[in-house]
Amino acid sequence: MKIEFIVNNVPTSVDVDPDMPLLWVVRDELNLKATKYGCGKALCGACTLHVDGSAVRSCSFPVQYAANKKITTLEGLSVNADKLHPVQQAWIDENVPQCGYCQPGFLMAAAQLLEQNGSPTDYEIKSGITNICRCGTHPRILKAIKRAAEIKQNTQTEQKS
Fold first, then answer.
1. I need a labelling partner for 102 at 20 to 30 A (CA). Which of 70, 92, 113, 137 fits?
2. Of all helices (H) and strands (E), which one includes residue 94?
3. 2-76 in CATH: which number?
4. Which of 96, 145, 103 is nearest to 120 (CA)?
């Protein structure tokens, strides 16, 4: 079945089984490899990407439901190719990853959280992001999300000046 959608601001069409998980369409059909397979049951969050601005666990999201929607992967998170998204910059600043496998999902979940809440508390971060990191980098992730909020606020202030 032919399915059309926008991926990272590029109109895209695929001819696949409509029940194929969006994760496999993004990785195998579109060759965008940042989104990772973790558990296959929408529990761990390694496969998180955005569908029309909402964080979605793509391993259990049939591609047919992406039709005519805007999909954003980690590769397309930054609007400007010359400047990283605040969460990407914060992840670097805070040296977050250990093994790094789950980090694309965390970055996407954090970006979506910050769109909803520009200054989240520790509690709001912990309850709003349910992704799992087996390496135990959660303290650095928390710190990076707070740093990303600061970067985002500073960028918005600079743009208004």
1. 70
2. none
3. 3.10.20.30
4. 145
